[in-house]
C-alpha cells in the first residue's frame, strides 16, 4: 500500500494536492488525504474523513511518491493556445522530453521579464539547470532568431504589411554590464561614459526587430552598423532603405551602397534644445524602450554577448506573440 499524488482541482492553493491510498494491485482503497507541505490532514468532507486511529494503523510500507503541483500562471507565461502538442512532446536529440517545453520557455521568459538570476528560478518551474541548458542550446542553434523571424512576418501581415520589409532604422544603445560579464567582452563608451556593452538593433518601420548585435561598448557605431547591415540584408533581401543617426559615418553609407541599401543620416535639428522627436528614428528609439521594459535588459548580466542578443530577441518574441494573439503588450505600468 502506498501514497500516490495527483493535482487537486478543487483547491485554489497550488501547494495542496489530493492523495490516494492504493493497494498492491493498484486499486484505490480510499481518498482521505489533503497534503499541505509535509503535513497530512483529513479531508473536510465527512464522507471522506478517516479516524485518527486509521492514520495510526498505517504501516511503514506507505510511501510518498514525488508530487509536482500545477503552478498558477504568471504574467510572463505564454498561453497554451500558442503551443502545439508536438512541440511540447518533442525532446532534444531524439530523446523524450522529461519536462514540458512550454514550462521551460515560460521559465526563460520569466527570467527575461523579472531579471532574476537563473539559480533563483521559483521551484514550480523546471530545474534552473535544465532551463539554462535549453536557453544556451537554443541560442547556439539560432532558435530565437528563427522564431523572431517567423513572428515578425505574422505581425507584419496582421498590420497589413508584406512579410519582407523594404525599409529599416538602425540605432545603438550602451548599457552597463555586471561583474558577471568577462572583461574581454566589455568596453568604455567615452561619449556616454558607460562601462559595459553596446546593443545595436535594426527595426522595420513598425519597430519590429530585424537584426541585433551585442559588442563591447568601446566598439564604434560604424563597425556595428556594417555588421547590422550584413545581417539585415542576408535575412531580408528586399531591404533597400535605412535611416541612421549622425553617429554612423561614411563607412556605413558606402557599405550600404555596396549591398544595394540607401543609408540616410537623419540628424537632429540643431535649433531645437532638449528632447525632440526625430523623424523615422523615433521608431527604433521606441523599440529600445520596449526592450528596456524587461529588467534583464536594463543591465547586461549575461556572461556571453550571444546570450545578451538572445535576451533582446526574447523580449521582442514576447511582444510579437502578444501582438499576433491579440493580447495586450507589456507597458511601463507592468514594470
Notes on the protein architecture:
With 335 residues, the protein is α+β, with helices and mostly antiparallel strands. The protein folds into three domains: 56 residues, no CATH class; 61 residues, no CATH class; 180 residues, Nucleotidyltransferase, domain 5, CATH 3.30.420.10. 33% of the residues lie in helices and 19% in strands. A hairpin with a 5-residue loop joins strand 2 and strand 3. The longest helix has 20 residues. It is globular, with a radius of gyration of 26 Å. 30% of the residues are buried. The N terminus is likely disordered.
Topology:
Layout lengths: L1 E6 L8 E7 L5 E9 L2 E4 L9 H6 L27 H5 L11 H14 L13 H13 L2 H16 L8 E10 L10 E3 L4 E10 L5 E8 L4 H15 L5 E4 L5 H10 L2 E4 L15 H12 L12 H20 L11
Parallel strand pairs: 5-9, 9-10
Antiparallel strand pairs: 1-2, 2-3, 3-4, 5-7, 6-7, 7-8
Order of H and E elements: EEEEHHHHHEEEEHEHEHH
Helical stretch tally: 9
Shape: globular
Ends: how far apart? Answer: 50 Å
CATH fold descriptor of the largest domain: Nucleotidyltransferase, domain 5
Quote the average pLDDT. Answer: 78
Strand content: 15-25%
> Rounded to an integer, what's the Rg over CA atoms?
26 Å
Domain count: 3
What does the main sheet amount to? 6 strands, mixed
Going by CATH, the architecture of the largest domain would be 2-Layer Sandwich
Amino acid at each position: 500500500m502506498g501514497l500516490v499524488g495527483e493535482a487537486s482541482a478543487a483547491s485554489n492553493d497550488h501547494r495542496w494536492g489530493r492523495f490516494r491510498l492504493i493497494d498492491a494491485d493498484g486499486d484505490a482503497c480510499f481518498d482521505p488525504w489533503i497534503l499541505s507541505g509535509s503535513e497530512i490532514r483529513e479531508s473536510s468532507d465527512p464522507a471522506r474523513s478517516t479516524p485518527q486511529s486509521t492514520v495510526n494503523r498505517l504501516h511503514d510500507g506507505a510511501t510518498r511518491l514525488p508530487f509536482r503541483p500545477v503552478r498558477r500562471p504568471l504574467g510572463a507565461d505564454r498561453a497554451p493556445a500558442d503551443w502545439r502538442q508536438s512541440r511540447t512532446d518533442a525532446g532534444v536529440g531524439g530523446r523524450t522530453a522529461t519536462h514540458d517545453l512550454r514550462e521551460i520557455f515560460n521559465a526563460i521568459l520569466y527570467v527575461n521579464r523579472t531579471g532574476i538570476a537563473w539559480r533563483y528560478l521559483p521551484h514550480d518551474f523546471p530545474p534552473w539547470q535544465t532551463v539554462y541548458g535549453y536557453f544556451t542550446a537554443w541560442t547556439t542553434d539560432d532558435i530565437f532568431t528563427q522564431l523572431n523571424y517567423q513572428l515578425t512576418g505574422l505581425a507584419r501581415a496582421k498590420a497589413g504589411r508584406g512579410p519582407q520589409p523594404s525599409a529599416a532604422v538602425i540605432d545603438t544603445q550602451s548599457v552597463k554590464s555586471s561583474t558577471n560579464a568577462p572583461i574581454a567582452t566589455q568596453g568604455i563608451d567615452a561619449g556616454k561614459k558607460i562601462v559595459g556593452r553596446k546593443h545595436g538593433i535594426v527595426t522595420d518601420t513598425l519597430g519590429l526587430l530585424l537584426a541585433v548585435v551585442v559588442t563591447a561598448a568601446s566598439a564604434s557605431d560604424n563597425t556595428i552598423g556594417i555588421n547590422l547591415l550584413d545581417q539585415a540584408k542576408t535575412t531580408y533581401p528586399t531591404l533597400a532603405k535605412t535611416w541612421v543617426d549622425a553617429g554612423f559615418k561614411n563607412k556605413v553609407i558606402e557599405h550600404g551602397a555596396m549591398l544595394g541599401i540607401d543609408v540616410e543620416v537623419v540628424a537632429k535639428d540643431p535649433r531645437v534644445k532638449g528632447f525632440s522627436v526625430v523623424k523615422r528614428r523615433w521608431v527604433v528609439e521606441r523599440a529600445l524602450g520596449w526592450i528596456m521594459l524587461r529588467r534583464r535588459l536594463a543591465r547586461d548580466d549575461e556572461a556571453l554577448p550571444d546570450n545578451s542578443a538572445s535576451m533582446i530577441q526574447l523580449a521582442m518574441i514576447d511582444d510579437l506573440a502578444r501582438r499576433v494573439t491579440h493580447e495586450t503588450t507589456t507597458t511601463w505600468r507592468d514594470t
